[in-house]
Amino acid sequence: MGDCERARADKTTSIRTVAALEQRGLITAEALAPLNEVARRFAVSITPAVLEAIAEAGQPDGIARQYVPAVAELAQCDDERPDPIGDQHFSPLPGIVHRYPDRALLKPLHVCPVYCRFCFRREVVGPGSQALTEAELDAALGYIRDHPQIWEVILTGGDPLMLSPRRLGAIMDRLDGIDHVGVVRLHTRVPVADPERVDETAITALKRRTPVWVAIHVNHPDELTTAARRACAALADAGLPLLSQSVLLKGVNDDAAVLTRLFRALVALRIKPYYLHHPDLARGTGHFRPEIADGQALVAALRGRVSGLCQPTYVLDIPGGFGKVPIGQCYLETAEDGSHTVTDPDGGSHRYPRQV
């Protein structure tokens, strides 16, 4: 391959090996051996779009740290788990997770355009992971059809926008035909990590009678490149309501100014900040987890100073599959006489009477 051909390939090919990371200057030669061990345990993939974003970012670590493997991933603590939120316990058959009564996850594949270093499903996603067979997909859709309490189906995986538009459209058609499914939510990293996939055929695959909400995973404002913004605008212009999900990550976005930039940029793109997740207890991810008290302080720093449109709910998925709960600061205390003390965003205290 000549130099010109190699340059073109570099711009169109995802990095999937530690050697390629070293060639692009993203890691040092001394890190090759330990990072090869990391890559044997947890998949590596960085798209050209993300590589370009890293190169252009004002704070490159805000993006690179999310995707470039680190030796710290080899350190695992006793509390970390291969299935940190208990998906397996609530999976009655392949492709279905039914933890909450009125909603179920449908996971048609386990492949993503990129592999986040903090991913709570890092033990089950990656190259070589199996997509559902046609028989398994039939059974999964049959499960949804046979459980009328399921009002919301959440397409996740893996990243459902990695499916071909034909296959994604076929799944959407079948969900559209289940009368008790009131809404479909799709979780994706693609608009940020591989925005060229968000084309007219992909958008057409998503538009059905049943309302479809798209939840976009983005953690740092520098990920919202021109191409990513264009992809998000295309989804919004098509009438698809957009939410965001972010993970609070040490060394990436654990800073009130960075979170403010991120959430304001999302709202300007017609994306409602939905959840700010505390990192899960996935193995080898301790270097990303801040203290919950620090997360609460960061979220409190936004209250009263940043528009309510920009305020996500800070949540923790309780380890073991016990559900997701808000863990932000509480502003209300109740006294013995039934009255209340309310704390304002500046720390002042105010009495609120008991209702009689």
Structure description:
It is a single chain. The termini are far apart. The longest helix is centred in the middle third of the chain and has 13 residues. The protein folds into two domains: about 70 residues, no CATH class; about 240 residues, Aldolase class I (TIM Barrel). Helix 4 packs antiparallel against helix 5 and helix 7 runs parallel beside helix 9. With about 350 residues, it is an alpha/beta fold.
Write out key terms for the chains shown.
alpha/beta, TIM Barrel, nine-stranded mixed sheet, disordered N terminus
Q: In terms of per-residue confidence, which ranges show pLDDT below 50 for 5 or more consecutive residues?
A: 1-10
What is the CATH architecture annotation of the largest domain? Alpha-Beta Barrel
Net shape: globular
Structural category = alpha/beta
Helix content, binned percent = 25-40%
Question: How many domains?
Answer: 2
Q: What is the radius of gyration computed over CA atoms, rounded to a whole number of angstroms?
A: 21 Å
